[in-house]
Specification:
2 domains, elongated, Asp/Glu/Uridylate_kinase, ATP-binding, seven-stranded antiparallel β-sheet, nucleotide-binding
Length: 406
């Protein structure tokens, strides 16, 4: 039988009617012949209310351990309600919380931002599999973990999403369904632009970047556990149907979740364009990039300053790009001059762990500083850092920064 992991967010279990509707969708999926594992968040706003209540009652005297135990009450309540509702619909269910011997998610001892012990969790998840094989629907607390001494820990904001993808990975689920209060991932926030459209699918990388920069649909940390062989989607609880279309999350594709440090195999040339107060002149960046795009010249990086813009292109296209951009400088009153600089080496570092690693930029740059290697430019996203150094230092710099990923 196929296993479906269904995660219900706080809004989707926001009242008794919604809990029953959610439970019915789980039972319907079970009746199709599938195994179903349910992950449930606290009822909408419960966690915030518990935090507010404890802050007002105890204030600064509240320890992190006490706070984790108090915050956990939301999930401890919601799984009991959900499991009882499933049983009222005629299917056997069992709630699993950190006090249960079958509890799978083991962490370190950090009460509020616990790190998962993946190998131990994978072993413990076998107990959940045994339950599923008995025809029982397990209902598991999202957001929570169990520390080394059996204490309750929490996985941080978005922890229920982490729980769903983690258990889906450990149990080789066919699909992870994130049930929330939107139809899926939109082309933008529909509250800001009415013409926003529902996406049929989105890649793990795209979803991670959207989530990191403010999209509330899914927590980016959860995507570390997205297995490329497991289907995933985001649907609206209003449909009351786990087979609803929603938005598929595809990937990760080969290399997306790997730690990679690569040195571009040929030199990069840097072209610097200067002009007065360029950042406050609309359209300048568009003019520069369009000028090169028309001749099919690829840009590896752009850096903008108050009075300059630096563009990185392949060395074998540098002279052509240089002349094209010079023509633009002559035509544009805002631009003053440009220069073609030294040969540059481009080193790209990729790791899904960058998003959770404070100080990652300094970790990368420190060994270069110690070895007197000058950084021409550096840019970063949530999972990648690109470093430009002089070509003569490229191979040595590559070897040094590779150590950061180990």
């Amino acid at each position: 039988m196929d296993l479906v992991v269904a995660k219900f967010g706080g809004t989707s279990v926001g009242n008794g009617e919604r809990i029953r509707k959610a439970a019915q969708s789980v039972v319907n999926e079970y009746m199709k012949g599938n195994q179903v594992l349910v992950v449930v968040s606290a009822v909408n706003k419960t966690t915030d209310e518990l935090i507010d209540l404890s802050d007002k009652a105890v204030g600064k005297g509240l320890t992190d351990k006490q706070k984790a135990e108090i915050m956990a009450m939301g999930e401890l309540t919601s799984i009991r309600l959900f499991a009882a509702t499933i049983e009222s619909l005629g299917v056997k269910s069992e709630f699993i919380d950190p006090y249960n011997e079958l509890w799978p998610i083991v962490t370190d001892s950090n009460p509020l931002e616990a790190k998962i012990d993946f190998s131990t969790t994978t072993k413990k998840a076998k107990g959940i599999k045994d339950l599923l094989n008995q025809g029982i629907i397990p209902v598991v607390c999202g957001f929570l973990g169990k520390g080394p001494s059996g204490e309750i820990t929490t996985l941080g904001r978005g922890g229920s999403d982490v729980t769903a993808f983690l258990l889906g990975h450990c149990l080789n689920a066919k699909e992870v369904v994130i049930v929330t209060d939107v139809d899926g991932v939109m082309s933008t926030d529909p509250n800001k632009i009415e013409e926003a459209e529902l996406l049929d699918k989105i890649s793990v990388e795209e979803m991670r970047d959207l989530a990191t920069h403010g999209a509330q649909v899914l927590h980016p940390h959860a995507l570390k556990y997205k297995d490329p062989l497991i289907n995933a989607k985001i649907i609206n609880f209003k449909n009351g149907d786990l087979s609803s279309k929603g938005t598929k999350i595809v990937g990760p594709f080969e290399g997306d979740m790997m730690k990679i440090a690569s040195l571009h195999d040929s030199p990069i040339s840097v072209i610097a364009i200067v002009g007065e107060d360029m950042l406050n002149k609309p359209g300048i960046l568009a003019d520069l990039t369009a000028c090169l795009a028309e001749d099919n010249i690829n840009i590896f990086g752009i850096s903008a300053g108050q009075n300059s813009i630096t563009i990185f292109v392949n060395k074998n296209e540098a002279d052509k790009a240089y002349h094209l951009l010079h023509n633009l400088v002559i035509e544009c009153d805002i631009l003053s001059s440009l220069s073609l600089g030294k040969d540059i080496a481009m080193i790209t570092l990729v790791s899904p762990e960058f998003i959770d690693t404070p100080g990652i930029i300094s970790n990368i740059t420190e060994p270069l500083r110690k070895n007197n290697i000058n950084i021409v430019e550096i840019s970063s996203s949530q999972t990648a850092v690109v470093v430009f150094v002089e070509w003569k230092d490229g191979e040595k710099a590559h070897e040094l920064v590779k150590e950061v990923l180990k």
